[in-house]
Design goal:
- Keywords: Membrane, Transmembrane, Transmembrane helix.
- By secondary structure, the protein is mostly helical.
- It has a domain at 2-102 and 198-223.
- The chain has eight helices and no strands.
Length: 238
């Protein structure tokens, strides 16, 4: 897939956000941490809304073959860029909220968030690829379930109610994560598998691509809701 996306683009789409996140977590002052989180979120949200409001309607007016031709070029790049932006936005936001003191009892809630996102996402992944009985999927699911459960267990003693705004944000982030990593990303992989096959089916490529474009709009709406929650969290008395 990296070859289809352009190797330089694929490396940059993953490495630049990852390096920025590591810098924010390990070395950066708070203002730089905020910048990394906000910029990743702006790009993630903006691309999702662009896909739903601009690209989706344009593609809707094209033939199946023309749509498939667009997705052949578009999907490999998105498969690298969007998960990177989503991961940096979410991890950067959770750690930033804890860092500035607006996320009470962060560790057990983070453990719960991890469990609530990885388990459904893996179930959806296994279902889409008909892999629920594949030993590799079973191992990955078991590691996720047991690891997430262990993380929650070791942090349970510190559990306590957090702020309502944080609760709303965590709920939205859970939906975004499950949708992104459990539906959209597997869809992009399925498109790539069609492209890599000897006889790609334009109808399948078009159908999955249009579904992802529509779901990107749903993600964009949830992301705007998170923005509202973050504004309220930052300026509660405004």
């Amino acid at each position: 897939m990296g070859q289809r996306a352009n190797p330089a683009f694929a490396v940059g789409a993953v490495a630049v956000p990852a390096v920025a996140l590591l810098y924010a977590l390990l070395f950066a002052p708070v203002v730089h941490h905020i910048y990394v989180h906000v910029m990743a979120g702006v790009l993630w949200t903006g691309i999702d809304l662009f896909m739903a409001l601009v690209l989706g309607p344009v593609l809707g007016g094209l033939s199946v073959e023309a749509r498939a031709s667009v997705f052949r070029r578009f999907t490999p790049k998105m498969a690298f860029l969007m998960p990177s932006l989503a991961f940096v936005t979410i991890v950067g936001g959770v750690t930033l909220a804890e860092r500035v003191g607006v996320f009470p009892h962060a560790r057990p809630w983070t453990a719960l968030l991890t469990l609530a996102t990885t388990v459904p996402a893996l179930l959806l992944l296994g279902w889409q690829f008909d892999a629920l009985d594949d030993p590799r999927w079973i191992v990955a699911f078991a590691v996720s379930l047991l690891g997430g459960g262990a993380y929650l267990a070791v942090t349970a003693d510190a559990f306590g109610m957090t702020s309502p705004t944080i609760l709303v944000s965590l709920a939205i982030v859970t939906v975004l994560s499950v949708l992104g990593f459990g539906v959209l990303l597997p869809g992009e992989v399925r498109i790539y598998r069609q492209l890599a096959s000897g006889d790609p089916d334009p109808t399948v490529i078009s159908r999955i691509g249009m579904r992802n474009a529509r779901l990107s709009g749903v993600q964009g709406l949830f992301q705007l809701a998170v923005v509202v929650a973050m504004v309220y969290l930052r300026w509660p008395a405004a």
